[in-house]
Amino acid sequence: MSALTASPAWQALQAHADALRGTHLRALFAADPQRGERLALQAEGITLDYSKHRITDETLRLLQALATQAGLRARIDAMFAGERINVTEHRAVLHVALRAPRGADIRVDGVNVVPEVHQVLDRMAAFAEQVRSGAWRGHTGQRIRNIVNIGIGGSDLGPVMAYEALRHYSARELRLRFVSNVDGTDFAEAVQDLDAAETLFIVSSKTFTTLETMTNAHSARDWALAGLGGDPAAVAKHFVAVSTNAPAVSAFGIHTDNMFGFWDWVGGRYSMDSAIGLSTMLAIGPAQFSEMLAGFHAMDAHFRTAPFERNLPVLMGLLSLWYADFFDAQTLAVLPYDQYLKRFPAYLQQLTMESNGKHVTLDGQPVGVPTCPVVWGEPGTNGQHSFYQLIHQGTHLIPCDLIAFAQPLNPLGRHHDMLLANVLAQAEALAFGKTADEVRAEGTAEALVPHRVFEGNRPSSLLLLDKLTPAALGKLVALYEHSVFTQAAVWHINAFDQWGVELGKALAQRIIPELESPAALALAHDSSTNALIRRVRQMRGRP
Ligand code: G6Q
Questions:
Q1: Could you tell me where the DSSP H helices lie in 41-176?
Q2: What would the pLDDT profile of 184-231 be if each residue is shown by its tens digit?
Q3: Cβ < 6 Å from ligand 1: which residues?
């Protein structure tokens, strides 16, 4: 038994969960005609319907007691106070400062970081205006029509997701592309129809040492110079950098005037609203980028001040933990009913799983309970014609986050009512299902009845917003960021490091020369890895 599972709040929840496990959502709704009205929370323009969760008022009370026992309030205060809560890397965690309004005061080691944040935002805005207006010209005098962001992980997923999400608001005359994979195909396909004279590369890398990004950046420089007559001076007009590493940026040949900085207190997966969002700002313009930041900030303020029972991220975080730890749910499906949010599940995969995919506590002890569920998803209604079968009738319990917007951005006949009808219908079907008697009453042959029964009792959250705007996106992302934080506080884990990505990187560095060497080298891996290296070398015509 771990310290967490032995704690009074956990024990109380465990007993409560065991008692509630056999209760169907049908019974919970039948017992309380007001449930659907009551178990809904509205804040910052987001309505969260959490009535279709396998919970009672007592569950909520106990989950909040767990958060209190875990010291969540003090953890929140510590983050906002700039304490070094990323203990394994000895860093403050202040993505909330990235969207603090001008004039706010958020300190790291006694220094208010908000003025620096706005200084960078102002430089980004000036640059974005130049590019968007056509004042910024390429080496040959042509205006920039193509923007290619080169980055990976946190320096890619946020920018791609935000560009796709806010495409409706983007300057359509600019073409944005994103290159992340070290697979040469990614770069080759991204530039195959582009003219170097009209192309601007943003090399986005906090460290400016990441293998994939630096390899792609060098290939981009070669490609650009080849298309621009080979004059190295061309780099200045076609490359900008987003990084914390000025010396490496200069060494690459990008003038630090064309570098936009951020700070070690911004984690990669929490950086889409830092200078890493330069591509987003170029696409939607500085004013709408500010609206997005204001959305983030509104959710930050809500998270910081709302009591736990009326706190959206706290509630979402605790509900996710409820199923992961008390119902053996191993995954969480995020199902946006908005085509613009098609990359949102992929973005959340990094945000949630890189943050909370941890097995030890802040003090290095085993957590003792399952931590972050596997997050996955696709936009509705496409998923309905694919994997929803398993959610409805399979043997896994899969809580779902359904996300919908009342207003369409592209009104087209009856499309939007159909889309909304589908998301509402799915939540209803998941919760209430269809009993054998109901199936029989439809005249179904007896042999088919079990196949057509929907057990129901599948929990879901429905997040309903008015319209997908830049501010709404900021609120949604901050909502999930703080939900992750809430869960990490309860598990007492560090959501802000990612040591688990290191081992594979180090091994790859060792294998690269073993693949490339013209002569066969002695291999000292396990027999499988050795054999695979030999096979690959053979297939590539090497001894
Ligand atoms: C995110 C991680 C990771 C990081 C990438 C890119 O939280 O730290 O995904 O963003 O490895 O790193 P660079 O920005 O340093 O290239």
A1: 57-69, 72-80, 95-98, 114-133, 157-165
A2: 999 999 999 999 999 999 999 999 999 999 999 999 999 999 999 999
A3: 152-155, 205-207, 210, 213, 267-269, 354, 498
User: Is residue 198 classed as helix, strand or coil in its secondary structure?
Assistant: helix
Strands (E) located in 326-432: 331-336, 374-376, 400-405
Task: Please report, as a single letter, which amino acid is at residue 186.
Answer: D
* Centre of ligand 1 from the C-alpha of residue 155, in Å: 6
Question: What average pLDDT does the chain have?
Answer: 98
What are the residue ranges of helices labelled H in 470-518? 470-491, 502-516
Phi/psi of residue 143, nearest 5 degrees? -80, 160
The preferred substitution site among 91, 179, 211, 498 for testing ligand 1, maximizing ligand atoms within 8 Å of CB, is: 498
- Spatial CA neighbour of 507 closest among 534, 535, 530, 541: 530
Find out whether 338 and 517 touch, Cβ atoms under 8 Å: no
Query: DSSP letter at 146?
Result: E
Q: How far from 217 is each of 149, 252, 455, 528, CA to CA, in Å?
A: 10, 9, 52, 33
The alpha helices in 177-285, defined as continuous H runs, are: 184-191, 211-227, 235-238, 246-252, 278-284
Q: Give the pLDDT confidence of 314-339 residue by residue, as tens digits.
A: 999 999 999 999 999 999 999 999 99
**Longest Cα–Cα distance in the chain:** 78
At 1 the pLDDT is 83
Pocket test for ligand 1, best of 152, 348, 481 (most atoms within 8 A of CB): 152
| Residues near 469 by beta carbon (within 8 Å), at least 6 away in sequence | 169, 291, 295
CA 498 to centroid of ligand 1, rounded, Å: 9
CA distance linking residue 101 with residue 94, whole number of Å: 14
Whose C-alpha lies nearest to ligand 1, atom 16?
A: 205
Q: With CA atoms as reference, report the closest residue to 455 among 430, 422, 427.
A: 430
Query: What's the predicted TM-score (pTM) here?
Result: 0.98
Catalytic residue from among 198, 354, 481, 514: 354
Q: How far is the CA of 453 from the centre of ligand 1 (A)?
A: 46
Distance from chain centroid for Cα 216: 23
Ligand 1 centre to CA of 61 (Å) is: 38
354 catalytic per annotation: yes
Q: What is the pLDDT of residues 460-501, one digit of tens each?
A: 999 999 999 999 999 999 999 999 999 999 999 999 999 999
Cα(216) to centroid of ligand 1, in Å?
15
Low-confidence stretches of the chain (pLDDT < 50) are: none
Contact 334, 377 (CB under 8 A): yes
Ligand 1 atom with the shortest distance to the CA of 154:
10
SS3 string, 298-327, reads HHHHHHHHCCHHHCHHHHHHHHHHHHHHHC
CA distances from 262 to 95, 149, 376, 439 (A): 10, 17, 30, 59
pLDDT of residue 24: 98
Q: Which of 359, 396, 415, 505 is catalytic?
A: 505
